[in-house]
Design a protein that fits this description.
By secondary structure, the protein is of the alpha+beta class. The chain folds into two domains: 30 residues, no CATH class; 52 residues, no CATH class. Strands 1-2 form a two-stranded antiparallel ribbon. It has a two-stranded antiparallel sheet with strand order 3-4. Strand 3 and strand 4 form a beta hairpin. Helix 1 packs across helix 2. The radius of gyration is 17 Å and the shape is globular. About 24% of the residues have low confidence.
Length: 85
């Protein structure tokens, strides 16, 4: 199963334990496309454009963006947070 919004491939392994379904593993993250995002480029070109505003709103709750930020080195992460905060 693939989540389109976060570009994650999710592998679910379930076990029936005392009539309960438990999820044991979620994994196999695919590379994020946040660095080459066309909406991000729209924001960079004109932050007040409609698409730029939508992108800015989107990164506030997007799990893919949060995972992308976590995958970056500390310096780059701080720079992006300052730029897009």
């Amino acid at each position: 199963m693939t989540c389109r919004a976060t570009k994650r491939r999710i592998n679910l392994v379930a076990v029936n334990n005392e009539d309960r379904l438990k999820i044991i593993k979620i994994g196999d993250l695919e590379m994020s496309n946040c660095e080459n995002c066309k909406f991000r480029a729209k924001y960079d070109n004109n932050a007040r454009s409609i698409l730029g505003r939508i992108w800015k709103w989107h990164i506030g709750w997007c799990p893919g963006w949060k995972a992308y930020l976590k995958s970056l080195p500390d310096e780059k992460r701080k720079k992006l947070r300052e730029q897009y905060s």
